[in-house]
Amino acid sequence: MSDMPKVRLSGLYKIFGARHKDMMPHVKAGMGKPELLETHGHVLGLQNINVDVQAGEITVVMGLSGSGKSTLIRHLNRLIDPTDGEILIDGIDVMKLSDAELRKMRQDKMSMVFQKFALLPHRTVLQNAAMALEVQGVDEATRNAEGMKWLARVGLDGYENHFPAQLSGGMQQRVGIARALTANTDIMLMDEAFSALDPLIRTDMQNLLLELQEELHKTIVFITHDLDEALKLADHLVILKDGAVVQQGEPQGILLNPSDPYIEDFVSDINRARVLRVRSVMQPLSKGKFSADVDANDNLESLIALSGGDTKHKYRVMEDGEAVGQIDMRDLVVALVPRISSAA
């Protein structure tokens, strides 16, 4: 079995401007985004991006506005070409694909869910959901059957003959997800897919995505500026600043061990009790008495409720029916205190 990730970005740079290739020596010599713009009138979009996207996982790329996250995702299907670096999909260098091969890769391997839904207003919900298969030349009966299956799966059974304008924003985004699923691609690209939605609807959509992922194990690249959303969805989290990766890894590890003052500031206001899991702060199992058993994937908030806030309790941690560790409420309290930024 190959260890090659589903998607690999290696030494990826993007510079916007008429002489972008000529700017590479300056950037590789250490010139940053502000200086490049001021001195040469070019914009540094991405700087030495090295990210592996593993099959069947949700990789979340997050950062503030202008950090390069949307630029990055558009490189995966070559809506934007890099100034330098490699983009490998299943080990294939997409920069070497012909126009026909690139179109086929976009049709067969990748689907995209957009922030603004991108539904065709003159087509019904079913016609929008089945559009990818129509482009692929699939016959009407087959594509409609697939579209109906996925519309039902995202909770839109009975709405297939409505038009987008007749649906709420959350329902329209469900159509967008159904369209991506109907395409039956391995990879789903989701660019700020939920950011235009109201908070309660946004939470519903996040839960729907996690439910679908539990069943389908798609390779998802999800772009967001919202850290709470990133921590909820990500198997692998990539945080960008000014076009460069500041830190990446398992979200719980980043929250507990921020590697940079920027990340420390970023995570300082997070509700750690709601986000952190027991497995992230548990200790090796030892002999002794335990107040109760808890699940490794429970959040710390549920443990606080279970203990009634009493720090004298100690719990045995279980996963898949086996004891995997223990957690002392005093360790939990320490984990809830964010690290003070070293830049302060």
Structure description:
With 344 residues, this protein is of the alpha/beta class. It has 16 helices and 13 strands. It has helices at residues 24-28, 33-40, 69-76, 99-109, 125-129, 131-135, 140-153, 169-182, 199-216, 227-233, 251-256, 261-267, 272-275, 278-281, 300-307, 329-335, and strands spanning 7-16, 43-53, 58-62, 84-89, 92-93, 110-113, 187-191, 219-224, 236-241, 244-249, 293-295, 314-319, 322-328. A hairpin with a 2-residue loop joins strand 9 and strand 10 (244-249).
Give the termini separation.
47 Å
Shape label: globular
- Separate helix tally: 16
Largest sheet, order of strands side by side? 6-7-8-3-9-10
Output mean pLDDT.
91
Number of strands: 13
Oligomer: single chain
**Element pattern in H and E:** EHHEEHEEHEHHHHEHEHEEHHHHEHEEH
Helical content stands at 25-40%
Largest sheet: 6 strands, mixed
Poorly predicted spans: none
Record the SSE blueprint.
Elements: E1 7-16, H1 24-28, H2 33-40, E2 43-53, E3 58-62, H3 69-76, E4 84-89, E5 92-93, H4 99-109, E6 110-113, H5 125-129, H6 131-135, H7 140-153, H8 169-182, E7 187-191, H9 199-216, E8 219-224, H10 227-233, E9 236-241, E10 244-249, H11 251-256, H12 261-267, H13 272-275, H14 278-281, E11 293-295, H15 300-307, E12 314-319, E13 322-328, H16 329-335
Parallel strand pairs: 3-8, 3-9, 6-7, 7-8, 11-12
Antiparallel strand pairs: 1-2, 1-4, 4-5, 9-10, 12-13
Helix pairs in contact: 7-8
